[in-house]
Structure formats: C-alpha cells, structure tokens
Design brief:
Helices cover 53% and strands 9% of the residues. It is globular and about 60 Å long. The protein contains 16 helices and eight strands. It is of the alpha/beta class. The N and C termini lie far apart (41 Å). The strands form two sheets. The chain has a six-stranded parallel beta sheet, sandwiched between helices. A two-stranded antiparallel sheet has the order 6-7. Strand 4, helix 5 and strand 5 form a beta-alpha-beta unit.
Length: 386
C-alpha cells in the first residue's frame, strides 16, 4: 500500500517559540509578510509579542484581520485584494483553524485566480506562489500541518473543501503557551476536535503505519491531558500535551483522510451553523458505537492507548469501554446535544436527508471502517439529537 505523506518543511515546537517568528521568517527568506489574524487577536498582547521582533529586524509587516476569523469566501476575497495591493513576499497565519484556512485559500486565489470553487474538491489544490508560516493559537484543528482547508461559500452556505499541496504550510510554530488563556469552551471544543481527528485517522481504511503512529501518540496524550486541562487551565504540561496531540492528529488525518464524524459535523454546520469542533463532539459517541463492529480491533487498541481500557480486556470489552468513556466525557464537558444547542426538532428532522447527502461530499468520502448508507446516517443524526 502506498501513501502520500505531507507536512510543513519544518516545525518549531515548544513553549515560547512564537517569539522566534522573525528568526523563522528570516530562514524562509521572508522580509515583507502579511500577517493574517482575527479581530479578537489583532489588538492583543500575544500578537504584539510576535510582531515586535519582526519589526525590530526591519521587516515590513502588515496585518489583515477584516473578517478573517470567519472562514468565508468573502473574507478570502478581501484578503486577496490586500495581497494584490501590497508588495508581500510571504504570509503568516496567526490564530485558530479558521484563520489558517483563510490564509491558505487566500494564497490559492492569489496564485491561480478564482472563483474559490475552482480549487475545491474533487480538484487538487496544489498551487501556491508565496510561502506560508502558521502559528496556531488553539489546540484542535491541526490546520497548521494539514493539507486541508474548509471555506464557507456565503451564497450557498456550502463548506468548500480544499485539499492539496497548496494547503500545506512551509513552516509551523507550535507554541503551547499561546493556549494558556483560551476560554474553557474553546479549550474543550478544540480538544474534542483533535480527539476526533486522531480516532478517525486510526480507524480509517486509508490508515498507514505513519498515520497509525501519529494517531496513537495523539490518543495517548489526549486521554490524559484533556480532562486535566479542562479542570486546571493553567496546567502547563497538559497544555503542552494537547498542543502536541493536535499537531499529531492533524498530520495523521492529513495522511489517512477524514472520517464519518467529520463529514457529518460539516453537514450539520452547513444546515445549522454548529461550530464543527462542537458538532463533532455531539456526534462522536453515537458514530463510534455504530462503527465498533466494523473495526473492533482498531477501536479496542485506541481505547487501550488512551488508558480507557486495560491491556487484558478483549476487543469487545475495550470497545464498549471506549464508547462509555466518550459519553461520560461529553457529559462532563457539557457538550450540548443539537436540541440543547437550540435547533428545533422539526427543522432538524426536515434536514436529515440533506445532511446525510452532504456528509459524503464528492471527492472526499469519509472513510471509517464501515461506510453507512444514507438511511443509517440519518439514524445516527436522530440518535444524537437529544
């Protein structure tokens, strides 16, 4: 079996490394970067600490934050206009997954023109003409190392999936200290997103020895660190472990591709604007329970890696323990059901067929060990509604 492994040319990992962004840009040959961030971060101390060393070196730095916190095609178009009007030789994405995805899409359009749908699956998004450095401020999506970006088409509400070498950053700075002040909800949703990526990469039929190693490492870290970081937000070791796990999970799913939870949560976001990390958490226990029978050995090994099951537990017992742990975790972390989120039952049931179709987009088939029918997907949505 062959696989295409992708990732940044280099990653600088460790607490305080964001302060070395100027050094990293120098190695990349970037002297005139456009920094893409979101409005909440644009005027904050974290960004100022990153920008100051760049400016001290004489770099000409401009910041774009006009809607970049929302991964929409309109934000991308505004960013491209800024790129075209300036004399930039590189881009820095500073923020969460949405900011990094906007920066990736900006560079695709800047290099090859639009419309953005031209670069969406099933097309390969392989073109980029300027280098990209990603500095994540959350521990969740893994976009800083992945070959994916997701952008909302505001006209249709559709989430366009961009996948290819043009979405792989040249460099990434993984600084866990940037997550110390994350709000509780953002910490939880990001951690559950990373958990989803790692688990789905491990049970994927496209899994490889490399993705397996990364996914299992991420699962080991998340199993211990996520409950700790929620209980004690200042726990430095837990923050570091979650940042490392999100990076490893991003590399794993970038290799093994997305799974059913990811596809179903993206569809739910399309119809009801549920943030994707939160939507994944809503669906993860039910989808995992459904998929157990198709890959019992894989789910059991994941449970053992996370410390949820004992080594001597047989596969069926370990899988059942995993589902039980996921349900308790989501309860403990106050993950709302779609009903509790505020979605009306009538609207949700009316959207079932559309969501089931959208959960399996052309060009990116969610690849759990067992691909369900549209009717089975609808049943999983009903089970998760609450």
């Amino acid at each position: 079996m062959s696989s295409l492994l992708t990732g940044p040319r280099f990653m600088l990992v460790g607490g305080g490394t964001a302060a070395r962004a100027a050094e990293v840009l120098g190695r990349m040959g970037v002297r005139r970067p456009l920094v893409v961030t979101d409005p909440a971060l644009a005027g904050g101390d974290m960004l100022r600490r990153v920008l100051a060393p760049m400016q001290d070196t004489g770099a000409c730095v401009q910041v774009f934050h006009d809607g970049a916190g929302e991964p929409t095609d309109e934000a991308v178009r505004r960013g491209v206009a800024v790129l075209q009007a300036g004399d930039f030789d590189g881009v820095v994405a500073f923020g969460g997954g949405s900011v990094m995805d906007v920066a990736k899409a900006m560079l695709l359009l800047y290099g090859g023109g639009g419309p953005l749908r031209r670069w969406a699956l099933p097309q390969a998004a392989d073109l980029r003409v300027l280098p990209l450095l990603c500095i994540p401020t959350t521990a969740g999506t893994g976009s800083e190392v992945s070959r994916f970006a997701v952008i909302i088409d505001q006209g249709s509400g559709e989430r366009l999936i961009l996948a290819g070498l043009g979405c792989v950053p040249e460099g990434a700075i993984i600084d866990w200290e940037l997550t110390l002040d994350l709000p509780r909800r953002q910490t939880i949703d990001g951690g559950l997103n990373a958990l989803t990526h790692a688990l789905e990469a491990y049970v994927s039929r496209r899994a490889t020895p490399v993705s397996d190693a990364l996914a299992l490492s991420a699962l080991r870290l998340i199993g211990k660190a996520l409950p700790r970081v929620v209980k004690s937000p200042g726990d430095a070791h837990a923050r570091e472990d979650m940042m490392t796990a999100a990076m490893e999970a991003g590399l794993a799913y970038s290799d093994a591709s997305h799974g059913l939870v990811d596809g179903m949560s993206r569809a739910m976001a399309l119809f009801f604007r549920v943030p994707q990390g939160l939507g994944s958490a809503m669906l993860l226990p039910a989808v995992t329970s459904f998929s157990l029978a198709a890959a019992p050995e894989r789910y059991a090994e994941a449970a053992r890696a996370m410390g949820v099951a004992h080594e001597q537990d047989d596969d069926d017992v370990a899988g059942a323990k995993l589902v039980g742990w996921l349900r308790r975790l989501c309860t403990d972390l106050e993950v709302p059901s779609p009903r509790a989120f505020g979605i009306s039952e009538d609207a949700f049931m009316e959207a079932l067929a559309g969501m089931a179709d959208a959960a399996v987009p052309p060009g990116l088939v969610p690849d759990p060990a067992h691909l369900p029918t549209a009717e089975q997907i609808q049943a999983l949505y009903r089970q998760s509604f609450g």
